[in-house]
Amino acid sequence: MLETPCELEALRSSIDNLDAALIHILAERFRCTRQVGELKARLQLPAADPAREEKQIERLRALATASNLDPDFAQKFLAFIIKEVIRHHDAVREQSGKA
Amino acid sequence: MLETPCELEALRSSIDNLDAALIHILAERFRCTRQVGELKARLQLPAADPAREEKQIERLRALATASNLDPDFAQKFLAFIIKEVIRHHDAVREQSGKA
Predict the structure, then answer these.
(1) Is there a contact between A15 and B26 if contact means CB atoms under 8 Å apart?
(2) Is ipTM strictly over 0.85?
(3) Does any CB of chain A come closer than 8 Å to the CB of residue B16?
(4) Domain range summary for chain A, segments of one domain joined by +
(5) Quick check: A91 contacting B, CB < 8 Å?
(6) Burial of A3 by CB count in 10 Å (0-12 exposed, 13-18 middle, 19+ buried)?
(7) Which pTM was predicted?
(8) Rg for chain A, CA atoms, rounded
(9) Tell me, what DSSP letter sits at residue B47?
(10) pLDDT over 70 for what percent of chain A?
(11) Fold of the domain built from segment(s) A6-98
(12) CA-CA distance, B63 to B70, in Å (whole number)?
Protein backbone atom coordinates (compact mmCIF):
# COMPACT_ATOMS: atom_id res chain seq x y z
CA MET A 1 0.00 0.00 0.00
CA LEU A 2 1.21 3.47 -0.90
CA GLU A 3 1.93 5.81 1.98
CA THR A 4 -0.14 9.01 1.93
CA PRO A 5 2.16 12.02 1.58
CA CYS A 6 2.28 14.37 4.55
CA GLU A 7 0.97 17.33 2.54
CA LEU A 8 -2.06 15.32 1.38
CA GLU A 9 -2.77 14.20 4.97
CA ALA A 10 -2.72 17.84 6.10
CA LEU A 11 -5.17 18.92 3.39
CA ARG A 12 -7.46 16.01 4.20
CA SER A 13 -7.49 17.00 7.88
CA SER A 14 -8.64 20.47 6.87
CA ILE A 15 -11.31 19.02 4.58
CA ASP A 16 -12.55 16.75 7.38
CA ASN A 17 -12.80 19.69 9.78
CA LEU A 18 -14.63 21.80 7.21
CA ASP A 19 -17.02 18.91 6.50
CA ALA A 20 -17.82 18.55 10.20
CA ALA A 21 -18.54 22.29 10.33
CA LEU A 22 -20.80 22.02 7.24
CA ILE A 23 -22.78 19.14 8.76
CA HIS A 24 -23.33 20.97 12.05
CA ILE A 25 -24.34 24.20 10.35
CA LEU A 26 -26.72 22.30 8.07
CA ALA A 27 -28.24 20.61 11.14
CA GLU A 28 -28.84 24.02 12.69
CA ARG A 29 -30.26 25.39 9.42
CA PHE A 30 -32.81 22.56 9.30
CA ARG A 31 -33.74 23.28 12.93
CA CYS A 32 -34.56 26.83 11.80
CA THR A 33 -36.51 25.79 8.71
CA ARG A 34 -38.49 23.29 10.78
CA GLN A 35 -39.53 26.18 13.03
CA VAL A 36 -40.36 28.29 9.97
CA GLY A 37 -42.57 25.46 8.70
CA GLU A 38 -44.41 25.18 12.01
CA LEU A 39 -44.84 28.94 12.25
CA LYS A 40 -46.19 29.23 8.71
CA ALA A 41 -48.65 26.40 9.35
CA ARG A 42 -49.79 28.03 12.61
CA LEU A 43 -50.23 31.49 11.03
CA GLN A 44 -51.68 29.98 7.84
CA LEU A 45 -49.00 31.63 5.71
CA PRO A 46 -48.22 30.15 2.28
CA ALA A 47 -45.38 27.58 2.35
CA ALA A 48 -43.50 29.08 -0.60
CA ASP A 49 -42.28 32.68 -0.79
CA PRO A 50 -40.83 33.34 -4.27
CA ALA A 51 -39.78 36.92 -3.43
CA ARG A 52 -37.78 35.73 -0.41
CA GLU A 53 -36.20 32.94 -2.47
CA GLU A 54 -35.21 35.40 -5.21
CA LYS A 55 -33.46 37.57 -2.61
CA GLN A 56 -31.67 34.54 -1.12
CA ILE A 57 -30.35 33.51 -4.54
CA GLU A 58 -28.99 36.99 -5.29
CA ARG A 59 -27.39 37.27 -1.86
CA LEU A 60 -25.72 33.84 -2.00
CA ARG A 61 -24.45 34.45 -5.53
CA ALA A 62 -22.84 37.71 -4.34
CA LEU A 63 -21.31 36.02 -1.28
CA ALA A 64 -19.97 33.22 -3.50
CA THR A 65 -18.39 35.68 -5.93
CA ALA A 66 -16.77 37.55 -3.05
CA SER A 67 -15.25 34.34 -1.65
CA ASN A 68 -14.11 33.06 -5.06
CA LEU A 69 -16.72 30.30 -5.24
CA ASP A 70 -18.63 29.68 -8.49
CA PRO A 71 -21.95 31.60 -8.08
CA ASP A 72 -23.74 28.99 -10.22
CA PHE A 73 -22.59 26.34 -7.76
CA ALA A 74 -23.86 28.44 -4.83
CA GLN A 75 -27.24 28.70 -6.53
CA LYS A 76 -27.34 24.93 -7.21
CA PHE A 77 -26.39 24.37 -3.57
CA LEU A 78 -29.28 26.54 -2.33
CA ALA A 79 -31.68 24.68 -4.64
CA PHE A 80 -30.35 21.37 -3.24
CA ILE A 81 -30.99 22.52 0.34
CA ILE A 82 -34.43 23.98 -0.42
CA LYS A 83 -35.46 20.69 -2.07
CA GLU A 84 -34.68 18.94 1.22
CA VAL A 85 -36.55 21.61 3.23
CA ILE A 86 -39.64 21.03 1.06
CA ARG A 87 -39.28 17.27 1.60
CA HIS A 88 -39.26 17.91 5.39
CA HIS A 89 -42.30 20.19 5.20
CA ASP A 90 -44.21 17.62 3.14
CA ALA A 91 -43.35 14.91 5.67
CA VAL A 92 -44.56 17.11 8.54
CA ARG A 93 -47.80 17.94 6.69
CA GLU A 94 -48.38 14.26 5.92
CA GLN A 95 -47.80 13.34 9.55
CA SER A 96 -50.15 16.02 10.89
CA GLY A 97 -52.76 14.93 8.35
CA LYS A 98 -52.58 11.42 9.79
CA ALA A 99 -52.82 12.64 13.42
CA MET B 1 -48.70 43.18 1.16
CA LEU B 2 -48.71 41.08 4.29
CA GLU B 3 -46.31 42.09 7.04
CA THR B 4 -43.78 39.40 7.93
CA PRO B 5 -44.27 38.33 11.56
CA CYS B 6 -41.42 39.16 13.91
CA GLU B 7 -40.74 35.51 14.74
CA LEU B 8 -40.40 34.64 11.05
CA GLU B 9 -38.03 37.57 10.51
CA ALA B 10 -35.83 36.32 13.37
CA LEU B 11 -35.67 32.79 11.97
CA ARG B 12 -34.85 34.13 8.51
CA SER B 13 -31.99 36.20 9.93
CA SER B 14 -30.55 33.03 11.47
CA ILE B 15 -30.96 31.15 8.18
CA ASP B 16 -29.21 33.97 6.29
CA ASN B 17 -26.28 33.92 8.73
CA LEU B 18 -26.00 30.14 8.51
CA ASP B 19 -26.11 30.32 4.69
CA ALA B 20 -23.29 32.86 4.65
CA ALA B 21 -21.27 30.53 6.89
CA LEU B 22 -21.99 27.58 4.58
CA ILE B 23 -20.88 29.52 1.48
CA HIS B 24 -17.62 30.63 3.10
CA ILE B 25 -16.82 27.15 4.42
CA LEU B 26 -17.60 25.66 1.00
CA ALA B 27 -15.27 28.21 -0.61
CA GLU B 28 -12.49 27.16 1.77
CA ARG B 29 -13.22 23.46 1.14
CA PHE B 30 -12.82 23.98 -2.62
CA ARG B 31 -9.55 25.81 -1.97
CA CYS B 32 -8.35 22.66 -0.20
CA THR B 33 -9.59 20.23 -2.86
CA ARG B 34 -7.97 22.36 -5.57
CA GLN B 35 -4.66 21.93 -3.73
CA VAL B 36 -5.33 18.18 -3.38
CA GLY B 37 -5.90 18.01 -7.15
CA GLU B 38 -2.65 19.82 -7.90
CA LEU B 39 -0.72 17.67 -5.42
CA LYS B 40 -2.11 14.43 -6.83
CA ALA B 41 -1.24 15.54 -10.37
CA ARG B 42 2.29 16.47 -9.28
CA LEU B 43 2.88 13.18 -7.42
CA GLN B 44 1.06 11.19 -10.11
CA LEU B 45 -1.39 9.78 -7.58
CA PRO B 46 -4.74 8.48 -8.82
CA ALA B 47 -7.50 11.13 -8.76
CA ALA B 48 -10.06 8.90 -7.00
CA ASP B 49 -9.51 7.19 -3.64
CA PRO B 50 -12.47 4.90 -2.90
CA ALA B 51 -11.17 3.88 0.55
CA ARG B 52 -10.90 7.52 1.62
CA GLU B 53 -14.37 8.26 0.25
CA GLU B 54 -15.84 5.28 2.13
CA LYS B 55 -14.37 6.61 5.39
CA GLN B 56 -15.71 10.12 4.69
CA ILE B 57 -19.22 8.77 4.14
CA GLU B 58 -19.20 6.78 7.39
CA ARG B 59 -17.83 9.73 9.35
CA LEU B 60 -20.32 12.25 7.96
CA ARG B 61 -23.24 9.87 8.54
CA ALA B 62 -22.17 9.51 12.19
CA LEU B 63 -21.77 13.29 12.61
CA ALA B 64 -25.20 13.81 11.04
CA THR B 65 -26.85 11.29 13.36
CA ALA B 66 -25.21 12.95 16.37
CA SER B 67 -26.53 16.36 15.35
CA ASN B 68 -30.01 15.10 14.49
CA LEU B 69 -29.57 15.51 10.74
CA ASP B 70 -30.77 12.78 8.37
CA PRO B 71 -27.64 10.66 7.63
CA ASP B 72 -28.97 9.89 4.13
CA PHE B 73 -29.11 13.63 3.47
CA ALA B 74 -25.52 14.03 4.74
CA GLN B 75 -24.41 11.31 2.33
CA LYS B 76 -26.31 12.92 -0.58
CA PHE B 77 -24.71 16.24 0.39
CA LEU B 78 -21.19 14.76 0.26
CA ALA B 79 -21.96 13.20 -3.13
CA PHE B 80 -23.19 16.62 -4.35
CA ILE B 81 -19.93 18.28 -3.24
CA ILE B 82 -17.69 15.53 -4.64
CA LYS B 83 -19.44 15.81 -8.01
CA GLU B 84 -18.45 19.49 -8.09
CA VAL B 85 -14.88 18.66 -7.02
CA ILE B 86 -14.60 16.20 -9.93
CA ARG B 87 -15.97 18.87 -12.29
CA HIS B 88 -13.22 21.24 -11.05
CA HIS B 89 -10.51 18.60 -11.47
CA ASP B 90 -11.70 17.82 -15.00
CA ALA B 91 -11.66 21.53 -15.86
CA VAL B 92 -8.10 21.86 -14.53
CA ARG B 93 -6.97 18.77 -16.46
CA GLU B 94 -8.59 20.07 -19.64
CA GLN B 95 -6.92 23.45 -19.19
CA SER B 96 -3.47 21.98 -18.58
CA GLY B 97 -4.00 19.68 -21.59
CA LYS B 98 -4.56 22.78 -23.72
CA ALA B 99 -1.52 24.58 -22.27
Answers:
(1) no
(2) yes
(3) yes
(4) 6-98
(5) no
(6) exposed
(7) 0.91
(8) 18
(9) S
(10) 94
(11) Chorismate Mutase Domain, subunit A (1.20.59)
(12) 10
